[in-house]
Write a structure and sequence with these properties.
GO terms for molecular function: copper ion binding; cytochrome-c oxidase activity; heme binding; oxidoreductase activity. The chain is α+β, with helices and mostly antiparallel strands and 353 residues long. The radius of gyration is 28 Å and the shape is elongated. The mean pLDDT is 89. It is 37% helix and 18% strand. Helix 6 crosses helix 9 (335-346). Bound molecules: heme C and copper (II) ion (CU). Residues 176, 217, 219-221, 225, 228 line the site of copper (II) ion.
Length: 353
């Protein structure tokens, strides 16, 4: 009997692994650390379905092992066939009723949450003051439009806390999927229809990630799919209104000579795709709107936001994000031009310091 006991080394290995894996969830990127109502509902479904599955696996395994041990052929008793239970009504009813009950336990909350999560009736009301964001997924970046306010931004999504935020989701070239793990999702963004859903960020809990959550593309869309990240900045409603006002009023003036030189280069080589300023919607959809580029937390969604990384991006975007749509669309920039562009782009800010 003794040799069946697990070795202490194995026990400690598994305990260390469990401890290690327990550290996997990061508060800005974990479905298991929900930040709002939608994420709470989704987490409870994950836990419920996992519990049911584990229960089934454990019970079936125990019965399996029991049967194998109990009815095995022992030494000496050859060709004895145990009593057959085929056609037993009692057994057949039991193993039909139990799964039905388990499915009911799973189905009732799932259906009720599904309807609740799909309830976007607020968006169709005439006099609604619900906040709507139009999300367009592009290769390999995200565009966010606030249609009530005439504001467009990209890569960093700004949302107020403690209210439902409604999303219209679309894609421009190929299918992507919009996912903010801590807040909810995923929902596909398609090229031929608009999907709608809502999310909610609880002000009591946004502190867990210092008001900055990570968003992801969750549908394989091309070579840079894994790099198609975005950020979500959460803030109280007043700060959000202030941000909208700043975005609307933005008349940017380059304040140093270098930035001015950068602006000139930008207006020659980059403005065909990128837009800057309050009326920037004109060219929306081709390239990220850069009105508040200086406030971004990342460059192109993934590089840390620093002048050195911006230089790296401008010199060779392909190296950072393979197959992105900026590669090879403008001539080679010399060092002076890069320096000027970096100075100019980093000065594009609307947030108050
Ligand atoms: C053909 C259109 C096109 C041209 C021309 C172009 N870009 Fe881009 N740019 C893009 C696209 C598309 C992206 C998004 C790439 C991605 O993330 O996959 C991008 C991304 C960027 C980003 C990162 C934006 C962010 O929000 O993090 C910066 C900065 C940038 N471009 C600067 C420039 C500058 C400066 C020039 C001119 C020298 C330029 N671009 C010329 C299409 C263009
Ligand atoms: Cu993708």
């Amino acid at each position: 009997m003794k040799k069946w006991l697990p070795n202490w080394r194995i026990v400690s290995l598994f305990s260390v692994m469990a401890l290690f894996l327990a550290g996997c969830g990061k508060p800005f990127l974990s479905t298991l650390q929900p930040v709002g109502e939608v994420a709470d509902m989704q987490k409870s479904l994950i836990l419920l379905s996992s519990a049911i599955m584990i229960l089934v696996v454990v019970v079936v395994s125990i019965i399996f092992v029991y049967v194998v041990v109990k009815f095995r052929q022992r030494k000496g008793d050859k060709e004895i066939i145990p009593k057959q239970v085929e056609g037993s009504h009692k057994l057949e009813i039991t193993w039909t009723v139990i799964p039905i009950l388990l499915l009911l336990i799973l189905a009732v909350p799932t259906v009720s949450y599904t309807f609740n999560l799909a309830d976007v009736s607020e968006m169709d009301k005439e006099e609604s003051d619900a906040l709507v964001v139009n999300v367009t997924a592009h290769l390999y970046w995200w565009e966010f439009e606030y249609p009530e306010y005439g504001v467009v931004t990209s890569q960093d999504l700004y949302v107020p806390t403690d209210e439902n935020v409604y999303f219209n989701l679309e894609a421009s070239q190929v299918k992507h999927s919009f996912w903010i793990p801590s807040a909810g999702g995923k929902m596909d963004t398609n090229t031929d229809n608009v999907n709608r859903f809502w999310l909610n960020f609880d002000s009591e809990r946004v502190g867990q990630a210092e008001n900055l959550f990570h968003g992801k593309c969750a549908e394989l869309c091309g070579p840079s799919h894994a790099l198609m990240d975005f950020k979500v900045k959460t803030m109280p409603r007043e700060d959000f209104d202030q941000w909208i006002e700043n975005m609307q009023g933005k008349e940017h003036a380059a304040d140093t000579d270098l930035a001015q030189a950068g602006e000139e280069i930008f207006n020659q080589s980059c403005i065909t795709c990128h837009a800057v300023g309050a009326d920037a919607q004109a060219d929306a959809g081709v390239a990220p709107n850069l009105t508040n580029f200086g406030d971004r937390t990342k460059i192109a969604g993934i590089l840390d936001h620093s002048p050195a990384n911006l230089e790296k991006w401008l010199k060779n975007p392909e190296e950072v994000k393979p197959a992105n749509l900026m590669t090879n669309t403008y001539g080679n920039l010399n060092q002076e031009e890069v320096d000027a562009l970096v100075e100019y782009l980093m000065s594009l800010k609307v947030d108050e310091e």
